[in-house]
Every structure is written in C-alpha cells, then in structure tokens.
Amino acid sequence: MLTEEFEKTVEDLPKDYMEVNFGPHHPSTHGVFRFIARVDGERIVGIDPVIGYLHRGVEKMAERKTYIQFKPLVDRLDYTGALLNELCYCQALEKMAEIEVPERAQAIRVISAELNRICAHLIFYGAIGLEAGAFTPFLFSFAEREKALQLLEMLAGGRLTFNYITIGGVRKDIPNGFKSELEKFLSIFPKRLKVFEDLFTGNEIFKSRTQGIGVIKMEDAFDWAMSGPTLRGSGARFDIRKAEPYSGYEKYDFDIPAGENGDVYDRYLVRMAEMRQSLRIIEQAAEDIPSGDIQVKVPKVLKLPEGEIYYRNEGTKGEIGFYIISDGGKTPYRMKIRTPSFSHLSALGFVLKGAYIADAIVILGSFDTVMGSVDR
Amino acid sequence: MEIIDYTNIRGDNQKVLGVIAEKTKKIGIIAKLELVYDQINAAAEARDIVAFCMLLKEDKDLSFEYIRSITGSDFEDRYEIVYSLYSFANGWSVNIKVKINHDRPEVDSIVGVYKGANWFEREIWEMLGIDIKGHPDLRPLLLVGDEDFHPLRKSFEIKWEEKEYIPTGKFE
Amino acid sequence: MEKGNTEVGYLEGRFKEQNIITLSYNKLMNAARSRSVWYLTFGIACCAIEMMATGASHYDLDRFGMFFRASPRQADLIIISGWITRKYAPVVKRIYEQMAEPKYVVAMGTCAISGGHCYDSYNIIQGVDKVIPVDVYVQGCPPRPEALYKGLLEMKKVINRDTIVVK
Known about the structure:
The complex is a heterotrimer of chains A (about 375), B (about 170) and C (about 170). Helices cover about 50% and strands about 10% of the residues of chain A. Chain A is built from 16 helices and 9 strands. Chain B is elongated, with a radius of gyration of 21 Å. At the A-B interface, helix 9, strand 6, strand 7, strand 8 and strand 9 of A face strand 1 and strand 4 of B.
C-alpha cells in the first residue's frame, strides 16, 4: 500500500549520521567512561568506546612490591566489593605456597564476603533506579547499606576499603556484641528487601522500560566472555562457588538464580534473588563458628616457589582471576589481573546496535561496571 | 530461551589430557601437555594457535566455549603469551602457552574464534609491543597514545625521585 | 513575637518594635552564599561512593543547603574524589574553566591531595593542585562522611573571606 512504498523509498535514501558524545563527565555513566555514538534519528548504529581515564598501571607496580605490600592495592580494584578481591588474591597465594587456613578464619571470611556482596548489590539497586528515572530507591538502598556497613565496621574496621583478609587467615577476631547485632540485621533485612521489590518488580513503568531491552543470548554471552549475574540473566545457571568451591562454601546450602529472557529485567531479578541467597549463607555460617586460631604463622617475607597459577573467584560482578608468574623471589615476576567489567564493556557495542539513546543508559546500568577495575 | 543447569558439573582434568593429545596429533599440532595445580598446561607453537583454539572450540567432545584471559609477559630471551580457556559443558580448564622471539614479535589474532579476545589483544599490543596480525582495530586502549615506551617490558623502569620541598621564603 | 508562634531563631524576642538592621553588604551576601553551596557530581573512583553516601539519607547534606547539580555551569563547588591520570587531567581543567565565578574546589582523599596509593606509577599526577587551585583538603582513604562534613563546613570560612563589592 502507500505506506509500504513510502517506507521502502525511505530506506534507500543516502543517510547522514549524527555523532553524539557521552562524555567522560556524565551523571550516569558509572564512573569515567566515554563513548561516541553514531545515531540515525534516535537509534544507535554503532559506538566507539574510549577507556583509560583511570589507568594507574597496577600490574607494573606489582613487580616492585612484595606480596604483602601489594595487598592494599588489590582492595581498590573493584571498590564496591573490596573484600572479595582480597579473598581471591590471598587464596591464590595460599594455593601456591600450600598454606592451610584454619576453619574459624574460613567461616569469618565467608560472613564478611557475603555482607560485602549485599552492599554492592544495594548500590546497583540505587543506580538502576536513578537511570530509569526514579530518585527514591537511591535513598532507600543507601540507608539500608549503612546498617550492613556498620556491621562490617565492627568486624573489619573500615567502610569501603578494609585490608582485613590476610595471607593465612583474617586480621582480627569477632568482637563482643557482633553476633547479637548480626541477628538483628538478619531479622529486619528480608522485610526491607520485600519493600524494595514491591517498589520495582510489579511496577508497570519499570517493566515497560526494562523488559525486552538489551537481550543477550547465551551463546553470545559465552563468546564475549561474560560471567556473574550478567551471564546468569541469559540462562546459564553457573556459579564458581558451586563449580570450584573454596573457603568452606561446600558446607552451605544455597540456590543459584537464573533468568530466561536475557533482558535488563532478568538481570535485575537475578541480583535481587542473589541478595536473599547471601542472607541464607550468612545465617548458616553464623550458627556455629568453629573455635580455634584465626591466623596461621606465615614468614614475614613470603617467597613463593617457582611456577605459574591461574586462580579465580566469584566476585560481585563476575569472575575475578589472578594469573601469577613467580620466579622464586620476594616480588612477583608478572601479576595479571582479570576483571569482569573489562570483558562486559567490550561487548557494549554489540549489545547496543539498534537501541534507542535513552535505553543505552539503562543497558549500561544493568551491566553494573566499575571503572576502577576496567582500567586497573 | 531455556535455562541450562551447570551447577553439578565437576570436570576431571586428568581424563581429558589423553583426549586432547590424540586430537592435536591428528591435525598435526605439536603440543606438550602436563597437569599443574589441577589445570592443564599446554605448550604450543606460535603458528598453530588459531588452529588449536578452533579445535578446542568446535569439537563436540571438547567444546571450550569461553576464553578467560590472555596474559603477555616479557622474559630475557623471549615473550610468552598464555591463553586460558574454560569449558562450561564439561568443567575442564586449559592454559595454552606460546613463545615468541624478541627480534620479530608477532602472533596471529584469535578474534575470529572468540569475539571476546578483542580487547585482551589490544592491551597486549599496547603494553608489550607485540604485533597482532589480523586484528581489526589496533589502537591505544588504556594509554594516551603519545608515549614512546611499552610499559610492561622489563627494559622500561619507572624513574621516581623523591624531591625535597624547599620553601620559597615568601610570607603573605 | 508572641510565645507559641514559630520561632525565628536569632531574631526572636530581640526587638520590641519595628526596627532596621545595618550590616555590611559583604557580610550579608557571604552569609547567604555560604549556606547554599551547590556541588557538582564529579565522582571518579572509590571516594565517589563515600560522597554519594554522604549525600544520601543517613548522612544528609541537604540540611546544610548542599544539593548536587550535574552541569558545571550551575554548580559552585567541585569535589575531586579520586586519582587523576595523564589522560584525565585536561578534562578536569576544562570542566573547572566551564564553571561560573565564584567557584571553589575541595580535594577529597589522599589520591587527590598527593597521589595516594599509586604515587609511583608512570601515569599518575601527584595531587590535583598541580592542575587546578584547591581551597580545602580533606584527608582519609576514603574519608568518613563526618570528615567530609568538616571539610565542607570549612568552606564557610573560605567564602567569608571573599569581597564582592569593594574594588
């Protein structure tokens, strides 16, 4: 009919694309990230991402410091969930040097790591609210995050960067009064989570902004090296805590959520369900913490045997990996850090083809990237 | 899409050593395999890397769909690049190591096999100066682009001097 | 003022009849400006999370009259929260130049004061005061929200030193 012929001729006309710059200083790209989008009307045709505004050369600095001197810098890679980076680094060294961690330290490590995972997912909840256009969830989630941070401050002594997990154990024991505060938190938090879910999960506006947007199929997710909640939202029920268990995770009973459609809404649901599973793990771990030492005796200057190892962990955003080459000396010969946000951002151009400009921000928020770990 | 459950897959790397050795011999790739820290380490030639990765990805029994990381490092007489792969369907992990000369540092790109290797290879080109042949888009990724050094080479040393602060003597 | 009405604070019960207050124009303008400083959201790295937590509901910055604005042309204060690399320094300078006078800078965290944990890297500028002039330094890694309060309330002393009218 008339409209069909009109559309066909419109498609054949020569096109002139406009380039829009989402600059490094932007209120809602997570951190310092710049991309130049080539737009045809309102639809994105291709993007050119620019990263490296936060590159400090951590891998080069690692070759001049001893293993214990390097540990505070590992904290600041993925700064929303700092304890999980430290856990991966210390476990890689312990596996190479064959150090056995006592059971009490393993239980304390699990409790602090899962509390930190809850804090990081609450930041995601606030941020995706801001990107879809709502301001209230940001205030709600940061208020709840304060309660978890107060628990972590009692235990580890810090709010954002901790330096608490050491090679061979943890630094300090559980103080008096921690268990009663933890029980209070565990009884109140599920009800608050229900309030958060009621705000977004059934909300018509949120659903129409996030369903069917940014769909990633499972084969593409494997090809682009995605992991963590982004991969689970695309249908692969996989978790490193179950596949290669570490630090006593095989003793606890928890489920792994997964999504069916691979869109933004499913990735949001996966992270909300993961918070509930973290609460289950903390309950089981805090029931009976075995007694004993919290730290094994380790030489002051640690020397690793010659060899190479690749060790990985389940961080808050995905798979954190350390590839360490050691030549038997005090300092590592080469330390390569594999972070999940680096691979997720490289797939952004592929996911954003054909999306609207307004949806591009929501998709970037659902990847939940931290620029400190992209640039290292 | 349906959800595929990978929770209860435990891969035994010992069993798959023999299978990989057979299949690489059939194609004509020389690879030395050994088991270190529960993972398979394979040493291969630089010209065979694309065929090796294609075999590991496409074969129905092996199906290594996921590239974990690409690491480059600088030794005294050679460069070494390590490709880490993982199989979701079976739970096996492999690290392939490739040695390159100092005089002519170049290697083929595996972007045709795994799309996710794109930014890893750009970073190796930038930090170590190894030429990646066949890469669609070789540009500076993390650095500004006007430097004349490659940071991760051992010949580049960071010169940082402690400067003493001398007050100017002006009081205002 | 009768008792039982809403209080006016400083002025309650001081005057029996209608009166005139004489004040220097500078003091009036500075008193008004220092109680309503709008800051630019310029989060770079880890300290940005603490800045967001300070602006959120538990530690509230809105009660001091501080609110975040996203555009540099509408902001008075820029809080540098993170480390500055060689690639990012021209961007910081450009944003500082885009802000309208009078403008102030707070350097938050040790990375912005003097380089921080990565001071001996090849790509880092040791301190943001090599790029733009800084008024208040807040230390910590990251500084607690209470420490950031003290730094932001010190801005009052900085603003009270300004003169607008006297040439």
